[in-house]
Amino acid sequence: MNSRLVSIIRKEFIHIIRDPRTLAIMFVIPIIQLILLGYAATTDIRRLNTAVYDADHTSSSRQLTEAYRASDYFAIRYYVQSEEELARLLDGGQARAAIIIPAGYADNLAKGAPAQVAVIIDGSDPAVASTAFAAAQSVGQAHSIQIIQQRLGIDVTKIGGIEVRPRVWYNPELRSSNYMIPAVMGMILQFLTQLFTALAIVREREQGTIEQLVVTPIKAWELVVGKVVPYIGIAFFDLLEVLFLGVLLFDVPIRGSILLLLTLSLLFLLTTLGLGLFVSSVARTQQEAMFLSFLVMLPAIFLAGFFFPLEAMPAWLQAISYFVPLRYMLIILRGIILKGIGFGSLTEPVIALAILGPLIFTAASLRFRKSLE
Fold first, then answer.
1. pTM of the full predicted structure?
2. Distance from first CA to last CA of the chain, Å, rounded?
3. What is the rounded distance in angstroms from the CA atom of residue 299 to the CA atom of residue 318?
4. 48-169 architecture in CATH?
5. What are the domain boundaries of the chain?
6. Rounded CA separation 113/159 (Å)
7. Which residue has the higher pLDDT, 307 or 159?
8. What is the pLDDT of residues 238-265, one digit of tens each?
């Protein structure tokens, strides 16, 4: 082999070894990708949060509820007393499906008339909705045959049985663009503010200009705020830009308040700006800042329900996802844009961001100030 080529290869290996943090990131990223793609990249929906409104209150209606519970597709989490309460759970995202058993259900079965049951499905995620739609019908049909053959002891063709009528709310056409475009907005907000904030600060550190700012009368908090405010403006402009193009190119409906969406986005930006400050306080070079930013963003995208539904993930990954701010921002985006819900139905994600946002930003700001000292 050419000796000059060997020398260059040797020099590059030495350069890599002398930067252990970048080297560690190179080895950690594949491990994270393997774990996330292996466990999170699945569309096998199980244990879907489900609410039940049983207006019949009979043993037959309770048996139907148990049939849905036993199917492993539906996890009965809520028993409600009205359709309005059921709608609030669907609006807020606490329930992804709802079963309505009307009064007279058991009487219709006894008389041999069709006993109708409504299953309402949150269609904001087409993958979840398609699985739930098929499962709702199959469970109802199986239970209907079981009732006719085992309990009533007559021929299947001579009785009405159970008639399950699934209905899809919010996204009845099950269009994937209605699901993905709001998620892209959340990803853009995190990507721009976190990555560009980190790169801008590290770039000044590399050029030595940040030390010049430190020795001026500027206070530390003024330096932090001055660095992050421009990226807030850019993030909001890009959010509106993607929102406009989503409507223009993909016919994504905007059913809620844009003003509310922009207001709640500020809470989310506190977390992304905080992560950018944290990365800038750790990284020494722009390349290292970029690697660290992707290392932070990769788990966030997978564990927020961006590509794959959280219900399909293992319980331990679902537990970790509660500490991912993007998870709550996607609930807000999809809730306002697709469902048209207001602040009252978004209290849980708003409270979560109100806790995580200031906490992450304050901790990152303190670390950033300490790194300047």
1. 0.78
2. 49
3. 12
4. 3-Layer(aba) Sandwich (3.40)
5. 48-169, 175-372
6. 7
7. 307
8. 888 888 888 888 888 888 899 999 899 9
